[in-house]
Design goal:
By secondary structure, this protein is mainly alpha-helical. It is built from 8 helices and no strands. It folds into 2 domains: 62 residues; 109 residues, no CATH class. The chain starts with a helix and ends in a 6-residue tail after the last helix.
Length: 197
């Protein structure tokens, strides 16, 4: 708001004579209000743009992690180790028995168990999407835990520590909980039979 002395001083200037200062002041007030509205619209637009950009980044990250995880199955040793776990008996009690049963494939089996551990940690820390991991690995993770549960529990007792393969147990239990909470788990070939690219 223009004060009285400033207003009188402005009126005395030759360049201002003939101008309606009250009208000019009102025009400036309206302009400042429009500037505030424009500022709010700009902030709102930037927020929407940021939200859309973040969602696109999340989609890209999910796709990239899915592709990276699927590469595991293309590794012959890893695939062989995973199949070997499916074939092993349920009553092995120690890692020595596990090694004896698998023979030269034992390192491949151990690699699979450690891989499930590292994927579980990465998933827990929010770097992998649960559904991506579940769709690709859930049955193999559950099987790895069930087939080696007795071995791991005995090993924990021997060592006096619950930390051995803690993340394998964690992820297998999360996968089992997921399936237990589903009323009906429909296989992909049925659930997506009408899917078109």
């Amino acid at each position: 708001m223009v004060t009285i002395p400033v207003y009188r001083t402005l009126r005395a200037l030759p360049i201002v004579q003939g101008l309606d200062l009250q009208s000019t002041t009102m025009d400036l007030a309206i302009a400042s209000q429009w500037a505030e509205v424009l500022g709010l619209v700009t902030i709102f637009g930037a927020a929407i743009y940021s939200w859309l950009t973040i969602n696109e980044i999340k989609k890209d990250r999910k796709a990239a992690s899915s592709l990276k995880l699927s590469e595991l199955w293309q590794n012959k040793d890893f695939s062989h180790g995973s199949i070997s776990i499916w074939m092993q008996p349920d009553d092995l009690k120690t890692f020595a028995e596990l090694e004896e049963f698998h023979g030269e494939d034992y390192p491949k089996v151990f690699t699979v168990l450690l891989t499930w551990e590292s994927i579980a940690i990465t998933l827990h820390d929010g770097h992998f999407d649960f559904d991506v991991v579940r769709k690709q690995f859930s049955l193999s993770m559950i099987t790895a835990w069930q087939k080696n549960k007795l071995i791991i529990e005995n090993f924990r007792k021997e060592r006096g520590s619950e930390q051995a393969f803690e993340w394998l147990q964690w992820i297998a239990e999360r996968m089992m909980e997921y399936y237990e909470q589903q009323d009906d788990v429909v296989p992909a070939q049925i659930a997506y039979k009408d899917w078109q690219p």
